């Protein structure tokens, strides 16, 4: 139904939000601009791309919609389609030559968004189209750093491995540092709150892949935390055991002269402290872990 007021330019993106292809077509036929924006600076193409309205995306592109027109927030049609996991629309925008390296706030690219969200299929599509696996954001992070940050929160091992593998096969540098942290350190929660729970099977699978692509264990973040410090900080006993077997240095000291074992004791993870050879408690499971992991 028509609104009980004069039609205006912003009705074009408003109709696109709900995927009303006929309404958008009629508005365009009446002469309203295809790149008209709403109060948030969003065009109909951006709204349709984010909403998954493939037929409408086709119409708008055929009518000359600009695939690089960004909203006030910096979002683009491509980033919206990637974020909402609309693969068909991503492919259509790529075919329409939407710029793959157009920067979002923080100098992010669409590929970095796909990696931060843990979307291997989207990352693969973008890389196949020519997206830059070595692009860096305002903090110097590459797509692989973004994927590693996702990895610390991942609960699906297959998905994480597929994402990391996609980037590493595209010649992503497994050992590049950004703001003092490598992908391995980000995978182990270098940017997470202390004691954050993680899926250790996912982390170990990710570490194995990074190590296979020449990531080093003798790296530290700006606090002087190495991989074992981070595993101790977050109470990841399985990761600690894996790192020790892989040759990580248990005697490495951080900028405050603390070993990984001392971090574990400080955090109350006495079972992890015991992994370093000095029993800290008769209990095999620490109270800190019990309190964190109880239902």
Largest sheet: none
How many structural domains are formed by the residues?
3
- CATH homologous superfamily label of the largest domain: Ankyrin repeat-containing domain
Number of strands: 0
Q: Could you tell me the mean pLDDT? A: 94
- Order of SSEs: HHHHHHHHHHHHHHHHH
Which second-level CATH architecture of the largest domain applies?
Alpha Horseshoe
Count of helical stretches: 17
Radius of gyration: 24 Å
- Under CATH, the topology of the largest domain is which? Serine Threonine Protein Phosphatase 5, Tetratricopeptide repeat
Straight-line N-to-C gap: 51 Å
Pfam families: Ank_2, Ank_4, Ank_5
Keywords: ANK repeat, Repeat
InterPro entries: Ankyrin_rpt, Ankyrin_rpt-contain_sf, Multifunctional_regulatory
Summarize the structure.
Keywords: ANK repeat, Repeat. The protein is mostly helical and 295 residues long.
Task: Give structural notes.
With 295 residues, the chain is an all-alpha fold. It has three domains: 1-74, Alpha Horseshoe (Serine Threonine Protein Phosphatase 5, Tetratricopeptide repeat), CATH 1.25.40.20; 100-215, Serine Threonine Protein Phosphatase 5, Tetratricopeptide repeat (Alpha Horseshoe); 217-295, Serine Threonine Protein Phosphatase 5, Tetratricopeptide repeat (Alpha Horseshoe), CATH 1.25.40. The protein is 49% helix and 0% strand. It has 17 helices and no strands. The protein has helices at residues 11-17, 21-29, 44-51, 54-62, 77-83, 87-95, 110-116, 120-128, 143-153, 157-169, 183-187, 200-212, 227-233, 237-246, 260-267, 270-275, 287-293. Helix 6 (87-95) runs parallel beside helix 8 and helix 13 runs parallel beside helix 15 (260-267). It is elongated and about 80 Å long. It starts with 10 loop residues before the first helix and ends with a helix. The mean pLDDT is 94.
